[in-house]
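name: query_chain
kind: protein
chains: 1
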Amino acid sequence: METLQTQTFYLLLFTKLFTCYSLLVTFHFPITHPSKVLALVGFYLRRFVDTGNEYVDIVRGISLGCPLSPLMGALYLKPLDDRMAALGCFYVRFMDDWVVLAETRWKLRKAVKAINEELAALRVEKHPDKTFIGRIDKGFDFLGYWFSPGRVGVAKKTVDRMLDKVSRLYEQGVDRICIETYVNRWWQWVRGGMGGVLLSWSGVSLLGDAVRYGEA
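structure:
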């Protein structure tokens, strides 16, 4: 989200009462396109992977890390963006993660109905374990951060992943400088979304400009 969008999102946490956030079960879906487009995409699809014992030809799906993946995903869900824009409620999406904020249950239900209709038309579905519909005061995480009225922090699972990564690097014998580089880059990402926090979790403390961290 851009700075203005982020500020708007934070302010709306104080004024909106209900939210719906979700992501898709899978971002793999059938697409019908003209032959020239299919031929172009085919160059990205035809590849092989080394499993250790043999080479396996891959003829379906985009390679991990391929720049086409986020672009095609973003374009594929544009009908959902257009539908939500027509409703007039606050809606923001990053790839297959999105959040909706509304003042009333009625408006939220209307938005959820619209989302379900668009996803059905696109032949994709929400992840049942990563979908939340309810009051904002219960809090919710989105893109690694934890949001609730008057509080924006880092989601607990985000911190846990970082600590797990550090533990694995240490067990692999990675030198201290590399580990510190990873933590510093992670910390820069945290500050980029919050403007600084004091984070203390499982014996790890990182000092920033504010004292906020969330649980998810």
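note: The helical segments are 3-15, 35-45, 68-76, 78-87, 105-122, 156-171, 176-194.
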